[in-house]
Design goal:
This protein is α+β, with helices and mostly antiparallel strands. It has one domain: Winged helix-like DNA-binding domain superfamily/Winged helix DNA-binding domain (Arc Repressor Mutant, subunit A, Orthogonal Bundle). The chain is built from six helices and three strands. The protein has helices spanning 4-7, 19-27, 29-39, 57-69, 88-94, 98-103; strands at 46-47, 73-78, 81-86. A three-stranded antiparallel β-sheet has the order 1-3-2. It is globular, with a radius of gyration of 15 Å. Residues 21-100 form the HTH arsR-type domain. InterPro entries: ArsR-like_HTH, HTH_ArsR_DNA-bd_dom, WH-like_DNA-bd_sf, WH_DNA-bd_sf.
């Protein structure tokens, strides 16, 4: 059921997103946290209000909008809740390997200081 609230949602197709916009979306640690939480659950089972985020509601809404605009998530309304889906297959087709790097545990990522 489409509501006035859900008609305002814009979902960019990942294939139409620039690399710059994709990188900007995943650069923020709060947005990476959202993506990791979504990757850990089945599609359409995580409502916006259930994410463990250290930000205010308005800021949370902004982060979800950035992720939608970058083609990373899709949202739909289910009664009073807004449910989320990570658009992994579509995003992987547009940016192979990028999401896999983003979803890795930050503790597992090592940066070489030697430049190699």
């Amino acid at each position: 059921m489409t509501t006035a609230r859900s008609r305002g949602l814009t979902h960019a197709p990942p294939a139409e997103v620039s690399l710059q916009d994709a990188l900007a979306a995943v650069a923020d640690p709060v947005r990476r946290s959202i993506l990791r939480e979504l990757a850990a659950v089945p599609d359409w089972t995580k409502a916006c209000g259930t994410f463990n985020l250290p930000v205010a509601k308005a800021t949370r809404s902004h982060h979800f909008a950035v992720l939608r605009a970058a083609g990373l998530i899709e949202q739909r309304d289910d009664g009073p809740r807004r449910l989320n889906r990570l658009r992994r297959p579509e995003f992987d087709a547009a940016f192979p390997g990028l999401l896999a790097l983003v979803l890795r545990d930050p503790a597992d990522i090592r940066v070489s200081r030697s430049g190699r």
